[in-house]
Design a protein that fits this description.
- This protein is an alpha+beta fold.
- The chain has one domain.
- The protein contains four helices and seven strands.
- The strands form two sheets. Strands 3-4-5-6-7 form a five-stranded antiparallel β-sheet, with helices on both faces. The protein has a two-stranded antiparallel ribbon with strand order 1-2.
- A hairpin with a 5-residue loop joins β6 and β7.
- It starts with a helix and ends with a strand.
Length: 229
């Protein structure tokens, strides 16, 4: 009898221990699931904010380009937007301590290098830049903290935005620093904007918009797409 009771107590103890292990595992699983859901939700919010940040600077840049008569001054980098936070070079620090190097952003777009690009490197035919001498020569046009786009307090954002401008690659005059004066050229009166929105924890969104002179007045956005890294 005593042996049976001892055996039963031992079995009960094992069952209790198994239950504790299962409950602990369940608790860990729920904690991990909750943590994962929180991370996913946070990433989604940051991705959406980056998208809206990029869209906002595209709209601002298009408005200013519409008032610029000489597009060649945009293409050679001698004219920039009024939305800038200093010289078109150097490092900008985000609220979380991460940095945005303006020269690096331009170099990576022009030749996929962190250092300055040569003309030959920018003419190199790649999958992303297959137009050789007509490859875009991206010039820094607008850059700054998104919150500074409107009067203080209107925009609550930690994102930093960079807009670059270049000649449309469909223009086949082999001169990416000038807009063709030939109305028969398919790229005449067409520019491309490339916008990067940088946020905390490495969040980034890149979009390109093709901008064309309107036959009547001003400019219009002909196309707009997300650029995958």
């Amino acid at each position: 009898m005593m042996k049976d009771m001892g055996r039963e107590n031992g079995v009960a103890l094992i069952i209790v221990l198994m239950a504790i292990v299962l409950l602990t595992a369940l608790g860990v699983t729920l904690t991990l699931a909750t943590s994962l859901e929180t991370t996913i939700a946070g990433n989604f919010r940051e991705n959406q904010e980056a998208f809206y940040a990029a869209d906002a600077i595209v709209e601002r840049a298009v408005d200013e380009i519409a008032t610029t008569g000489d597009w060649n001054a945009l293409l050679d980098g001698s004219v920039r937007s009024s939305f800038i936070d200093g010289p078109p070079s150097g490092v900008r620090t985000l609220s979380d301590g991460s940095i945005v190097d303006l020269a690096l952003v331009a170099n990576m777009a022009n030749c996929r290098k962190t250092t300055i690009c040569s003309a030959n490197e920018m003419d190199l035919i790649t999958a992303e830049r297959p137009w050789a001498a007509n490859n875009p020569r991206w010039q820094l046009y607008a850059y700054g903290n998104l919150r500074d786009l409107l009067p203080s307090g209107v925009i609550d954002s930690s994102y930093y935005v960079v807009a670059m401008v270049a000649d449309d690659a469909s223009e086949n005059d082999n001169d990416p620093l000038r807009d063709s004066a030939d109305p028969g050229n398919p790229g005449a009166g067409v520019l491309v904007l490339r916008v990067d929105a940088f946020g905390p924890r490495g969040a980034r969104k890149t979009v390109e918009a093709t901008v064309a002179r309107s036959p009547t007045a001003g400019v219009r956005i002909r196309s707009w797409h997300h650029v995958r890294g």
